[in-house]
Amino acid sequence: MAMRIASKSAGTVGEEARGRAKRADFTDVRANNLGFVLRQVRAEGRCSRADLAAKTGLNKATVSSLVAELIERRVLRESGSVIGNIGRPAVLLSVDTGYYASLGVEVNVDYMTLVAVDLAGNRLLSWRRAHDGAGSTPGRSVSALAGLAKRAVDKMDAEGRQILGLAVAVPGMIGNDGVVQRAPMLGWEHFDLTGRLRQAMRDPKYAVTADNDANLGAVAEQRFGSWAGVSNMIYLTGEIGLGAGLIIDGELRRGATGFAGEIGNLLIDVGGRVGRVEDFAGISAVLKELSESDDISGAEVEAEVEDVVTRARAEEPRVLEVLDRIGRSLGAGIALAVDLLNPEAVVLGGHYQALSPWIGPAAESELAARTHASGAGGAEIVVSALGHEAPALGAATGILNDIDAGKMPTPLGG
What we know:
- The chain has 414 residues and is an alpha+beta fold.
- The protein is 46% helix and 22% strand.
- It is globular and about 70 Å long.
- The model is unreliable at 1-22 (pLDDT under 50).
């Protein structure tokens, strides 16, 4: 009897589950199709409903229904017409860039950067402010973040734009729950950044999230960088700390608990010296050896790096020798990551961009010598074209990626 009861119960539960699955599947299919149509319009720039049906393989009625919803949600808009093959004008569709905005902010040891973008990824704002993150308490940093974000929100409100979300890039280990577990350069431990920021901004209606700066830099590079669209890529932050954002098979990989990419903690052997990649090749290592100041505050990092660049251009022998050694150490760390992940590109971001003429060749040479695959498995070391803006841009871009995946916004009052 127990067996029969169990079987009957299981059958009932299975039927209920199948019913839920069918409902969920229908919702998922429509969401996927909405994202599919949006991505197609984004790729084409402008196209008609008939073009979409031909390119997506969806029937005309389905395309018409999807387009109607995307227009209602202010994601697409009609933007002119062209004469079709049979003489009737075809209405063209494009991404609606006039209604939404997403915000990304990076907080680091010596600055904050804010970027706002529209649905097409066009920059609406790009602000950079000096901020002594290393010398500020977490509370003061949150107040500064909230103040900067509030100014951007007010500006977007004045332009009639709806905020899709606010994402924050942080140089530290951030769990999948958004809590900053450890950000040593900022002095943060187990800090609920998103909760405190929401409180400081009086609980806004849009989502407030946080992620590691390297992760978000990788997101920006994949969408806007010189290697945009690449399926396998490593992005290196090149700030005082050294972290990596990993794009694998076209997706950002955070790991089981969100802590993937800590390349700075890998051990390398360079010239008989064994230590962490960050200690041998991080920007802090550059300044420790070459700065003429005994005590560098967070606010002085960029100025100190610029001084090193000036001295390198003047071909000071010691500066060139140190930068060559830094480059070889960086190449040794990159070689470990390349052997493990086999990326197509390793992108040098942050301060590495300015130092790349001197550290890049040494890193490439060390990579070629140390990787097991011939030709470094096809991996190239390249320099970011996005510079220090990449993590903040990636923070804003991640929100657009969610929409491209089918998580459609609803306009206020809609």
